[in-house]
Amino acid sequence: MNKSFIKNITIKGVKPGMTAHEEKGVIITNYILLLASGVAFLRIFLFLYTSDFYHSAISAISTVLFLFAYYMNTKQYYDFAKYFLMVAGTAAPLIKELMSGGTGNQHFLTIASFGVVFLLFSLKDKVKLIIALMLPTSSIIITTFFPNIISEPIILSAETMKMEKFFGVMSASIIIVFVIWYFVKQSANSELKLISSNDLLQKFNNEISEQKALIEEQHKALTASIQYAKDIQSVILPSKLELSNLFPDNMIFYRPKDVVSGDFYWFAETKDWRFIAVVDCTGHGVPGAFMSMIGNDLLSQIVILQGITKPSAILKLLHEGVRTTLKQDVDDSRQMDGMEVCLLAFDKNQSLLVFAGAKRPLWIVQVKNGEKKFRELKGDKYSIGGRQKEDERVFTDYVTEFKDQTLTLYLTTDGFADQMNVRGKKYGSKRFKELLYTIADKPLREQYNLLNSELAAHQGDKHQIDDITIIGVRI
Description:
This protein is an alpha+beta fold and 475 residues long. The protein is built from 13 helices and eleven strands. The chain starts with a helix and ends with a strand.
């Protein structure tokens, strides 16, 4: 009888989806039932050898009962099979004892039944355990205190009683030995599985370590590349000195969400004009940074190389340049990224400022005769780049004189107003405008610190959700 045959007959009745504990319970029940039927079958021939036909017949019936219980267990009637095993296991010794007037020497098998109960039933299921224990307990009580219930018991000969005692001890010993052997074997298998699992775990850990090292190398390479991209973007962005040369009283509040930014600011100067722009490109991080490179290059070409100074015309050409560069004018193009722009041009000779905006406003705090006034110039509803349904995208110029008055101008992206706090509430555009109005008469360097403190207080532990850019100049 090979191992595969034993395994196949002991796992019958196991259902898919069972826990390891439930599966083990089914296998143990099958094992004990097959072992008990084998011992009972062997006792048939041992009793026949001694011409004890009475005990041989009882052993034959026990064999059939144990096999029937095994069949029921394979059909997934688990509790029925367990109880039937206990009934069959205690009934046979009980009948023998009563039929022989207490001289059958069957207590060994009954006592062995207690061990079987604890193998089959969980200590957690107290009701089932108590019911199962009542069967061998009742058998011992009856055979101990009421051994002479039958009026004319079959009195066994001394030789038969001796053989029956021998068979009883041998049967109990066989059951105990094989049950112990089974658990030792299971323990050894578990240990082998554990060793195998440990080997697999160690191999898995080694693979994880290798992957981790590879990821760390890739991360370092990627971080170095992004850091290099930041260096390039930093070089392209105008310096604070350049802004100070154009506008001595100024502030740059620039806070990228990631290492590189989709926001950028741009300065330029021609013979008669000075320019400032704040641009919010679609996205942030590396994709946004690519867009910022395109926007910065196009603005410089339009103003410095082509000599275009009218803000509305600059935005129109910037829009066309972005669509051409990203091939958005192709019908099947899926690339629809764009920009939002606040652009200012200052006429050096006439004290005029001209504003044009693509979905971004210009905020002006005007101080005249000691009175402070807040103005908002809204940009056009169109963005730069992206889908275009109209035949031609036209932008609007807003002209403002700033002679004999002090103006504080704010060019911003939407990052500050959209920043959420830990409760998921945005700072808000209205609240942002009120903040700027409140601090507008303070020195712009001081305003930088106030904005920084206000953002930190609102943001708390919440991560930054977008790039933030605020340019402030006083003229």
